[in-house]
Amino acid sequence: MNPRNPLWRFTGVRPLAWLFFAFLYVPIVVLVALSFNGGQSATLWESFSLKWYAVVANDPEIVRAAKNSLLVATFATLIATALATLAALGMRGPAHRGRTLMSGVLSLPLLVPEIVTAVATLMFFAFIGLKLSLFTILIAHVVFCIPFAYLPIRARLEGMDPRLAEAAADLYASPWRTFWRVTLPLLAPGMLSGAMLAFIISMDDFVITYFVAGAGATTLPVYIFSSIRMGISPKINAISSIILLISILFVALSYYIGQRKR
Amino acid sequence: MNAAGLRHERRLLLRRLALSAPAMATLAVFLLVPLGIMLLVSFLQPGDYGGVKWGEYSLEAYVNFLYERDLDDSLVFNTDYLQIFQRSFWLSVLTTAGCLLVGFPTALYLALQSERRRNLLLLLVTVPFWTNLLVRVYAWILLLRNGGLVDSGLEALGLVHGGDLNVLYTDVAVVIGLLYTFLPFMVLPIYTSLEKLDWRLVEAAYDLGATRRQALRRIIVPLAMPGIAAGTILVFIPSLGNYIIPELLGGGKALMIGNLIQLQFGTAHNWPLGAALSFALLAFVLLAMLVYSLRFKGAAAGGHP
Amino acid sequence: MSSAIGIERICMEFGEPGQGVRALDDVSLDIRANEFFTLLGPSGCGKTTLLRLIAGFEQPSAGTIRLYGEAMQDLPPFRRPVNTVFQSYALFPHMSVAQNIAFGLEMRGLPRAEIDATVQRMLALVKLPDVGRRRADQLSGGQQQRIALARALANQPKVLLLDESLSALDQKLRKDMQMELKRLQHETGITFIFVTHDQEEALTMSDRIAVMDKGRVLQVGTPSEIYESPVNRTVAAFIGETNFLAADAADAGLRLGDGQVLQAPTPLRGAVTLAIRPERVHLDPAGELEGVVEDVVYVGTDTVYHLNVAGQGGFRVRRQNHDGAVAAHAPGERLRLRVPTAAIRVLAE
């Protein structure tokens, strides 16, 4: 199919597509632009300035929230990726009834509405009498990070040629050595993208964290939410822009790695 | 297979189950058990200052859903909660329809681009997945508030004169926010369907005298149906239970189910009602997923619906 | 000659015992040392399953597999001194070509210097001395094929198994690789077991061929034995082009449906099938058989006449176009055919 052929030009498709992209990116561009505003207003442009970035960097509350977010995301990613990798390896082989059930359980965190997971987890901690803290946040994050880590790993495993493991066995590698020398290296890209997804999802989560965060255990999204509730401000513009730019950098990096692999 | 072979298979199966066990146990203890406790809580009495009275069972939460207790303890029919459910439902339907309206043409546009361009545009569609939702919703407050960019922009163009825009903290703002958040979820599955589409089928339709519009309606849309269905589910379900968007753009006035649930754990101090509402939402979602998987799972696997 | 692989009464069932699919049904074979042995048959005949049993990727439901006399059906694949060249090559995509070839040697714990030397020797053997550092997926299909061979041969296996190894290559490359494989087998002296569904390939390359169908071995023999003396109709139909004629065998000869009689010695009596190769029949006015031309097809090197013989259509006669002469006969014409006695194979059924 030649995309230039007029046969494939459907009326209205192009303008709607560009409307879509504009709709998607205008708010982001506006937000980032306003973060460089030197005035006291969040929306009225006065002059170019980096002063709000300085304010953000020197706000101990924001710094602590950022540290909490990174801490939780790092550990949640490590644990969830490890669990997901094992689970994906366990889900190989011929289908059986238990496997259908298990893959259902694995995708459950994606199915259950966030708010439901949030309140259920809160009630669970109340029930067992566990005090809310960074630790309870970590537990909740591990749970919803598992499917995000699992899916790319599973996809990678499914796309793997079973002949490769047979070839290793044919070349005198024991099952253990086949795993370390062939299966795991081939699985690594899947584990990396699974871990990246889990990390981002954990860093971004607000709803569940909001419910299971104890006093003083504030993450960055929870901090931002509370600030917005107190009213918009140029300081929120700046911290929001930082978060956006870090995410976009992350995406660009993973895209670049993906392109180079090809 | 002989007996030794069967034993071997069984051993292999056990080893695999052992590998899956840690993840399964984590999800069972920290998700399935909490959901069970939630169901239990919905049958308990609320505590006086939040929490619940463990062990005191009651159907009060489900009664509360439709009735209000008057001062003299008689039950009065009250549709407040029902109305919020209804509103959530219609706002989500509106969002899904809007997403379909913009999402399908966008997906079609993507599918018709050259490969290099397509990859780049696809990246642009997926960026929002990776960026913080809260922050992007916040950007809409900046745009929609009175005196914000949309307001002053319209005024500068002479489209409105004086007065305030008054869009923020209304249903309109909520739907804009939901559309903004979930559009990519509609575009991607439809695009996936269209990418797999054999364009020679459309050429065959042209060859048989179909116009572009007829080819679109009779060939392209039906073949993209699995993607459209998946997109609809991916937009509708999370819209329905969304919390952040009505909270920030609805300003506590345009409530949806999610906010109603949150309220019960906040100022209303009624955990059992919150649990009952959550359970109702969860049941609805699982039902929708069941219907979807019965209708479309075969199609997703490559067969016909 | 000693026996390299002995296959004794192997059965292979997939699924539940007794009710599963029989992939192999009581197969016995004896493959000699240093021979190029081919398992030939249509897809689903069990030839690949048999190869996977020898490699150790599957366990037989019953029977014994011997390597130089020693039973090895219970050994896992990584303890068997046989190596496989996979249909899809199965080169490790995350390793360089050299690392691929070195893999088996490393697993056996050979010293580094010896491994490096062997890798170089193997690259030279398959005539790709300079690709060692490249990644496997940067090579062309033909080159990957050679590397897969080098990786297997590096271990000096007692037996090399090749699973439809040439089927992914295009026609030209395929012919080259056929010669290459023969050369490698000659130079290394390793027993090759080759699986293919391509009868021409089997005839060209093999010392001996086992023709398989529906999980059974129908016939084992040299290419000329298989071609000239197929044991039954299935083998005759699968190997090369064959005309079949129904006949009645009696002391007076082989009587066809319309009363014509052909002569060929056979102990069989009653209803038989005659198998006659198209290139062994000659157009000859003095011939003993008569037919009516249905169609004349020019195929470059040959002209093929389709005739109706004794009421049966589609009897083909192949005539070489050595003098550039084209179709001298037209449909509807009556022709006489000479069928040498040695060209007639009388089959029961």
TrEMBL record, chain A:
Its main location: membrane. Residues 66-254 form the ABC transmembrane type-1 domain. GO terms for cellular component: plasma membrane. Coiled coil: none annotated. The keyword Flavoprotein does not apply. It is found in: Cell inner membrane; Cell membrane. InterPro entries: Bact_Polyamine_Transport, MetI-like, MetI-like_sf. It is a multi-pass membrane protein. GO terms for biological process: transmembrane transport. Keywords: Cell inner membrane, Cell membrane, Membrane, Transmembrane, Transmembrane helix, Transport. Pfam families: BPD_transp_1. The chain crosses the membrane at residues 16-36, 70-89, 101-128, 134-153, 182-201, 207-226, 238-257. Required for the activity of the bacterial periplasmic transport system of putrescine and spermidine. Belongs to the binding-protein-dependent transport system permease family. CysTW subfamily. This is Spermidine/putrescine transport system permease protein PotC. It comes from Pseudomonas mangiferae.
TrEMBL record, chain B:
Residues 85-292 form the ABC transmembrane type-1 domain. Keywords: Cell membrane, Membrane, Transmembrane, Transmembrane helix, Transport. The keyword Cytoplasm does not apply. One of its GO terms (biological process) is transmembrane transport. InterPro entries: MetI-like (IPR000515), MetI-like_sf (IPR035906). One of its GO terms (cellular component) is plasma membrane. It holds the Pfam family BPD_transp_1. It is found in: Cell membrane. It is a multi-pass membrane protein. The chain crosses the membrane at residues 21-44, 89-112, 119-141, 172-194, 215-237, 273-294. Belongs to the binding-protein-dependent transport system permease family. CysTW subfamily. This is ABC transporter permease. It comes from Pseudomonas mangiferae.
Automatic annotation (TrEMBL), chain C:
The keyword Nucleotide-binding applies. Its EC number is 7.6.2.11. GO terms for molecular function: ABC-type polyamine transporter activity; ATP binding; ATP hydrolysis activity. Pfam families: ABC_tran, TOBE_2. GO terms for cellular component: ATP-binding cassette (ABC) transporter complex. Gene3D superfamilies: 2.40.50.100, P-loop containing nucleotide triphosphate hydrolases. It catalyses: ATP + H2O + polyamine-[polyamine-binding protein]Side 1 = ADP + phosphate + polyamineSide 2 + [polyamine-binding protein]Side 1. Residues 5-239 form the ABC transporter domain. It comes from the Bacteria. Keywords: ATP-binding, Cell membrane, Membrane, Nucleotide-binding, Translocase, Transport. Signal peptide: none annotated. GO terms for biological process: putrescine transport. The complex is composed of two ATP-binding proteins (PotA), two transmembrane proteins (PotB and PotC) and a solute-binding protein (PotD). Belongs to the ABC transporter superfamily. Spermidine/putrescine importer (TC 3.A.1.11.1) family. Part of the ABC transporter complex PotABCD involved in spermidine/putrescine import. Responsible for energy coupling to the transport system. This is Spermidine/putrescine import ATP-binding protein PotA.
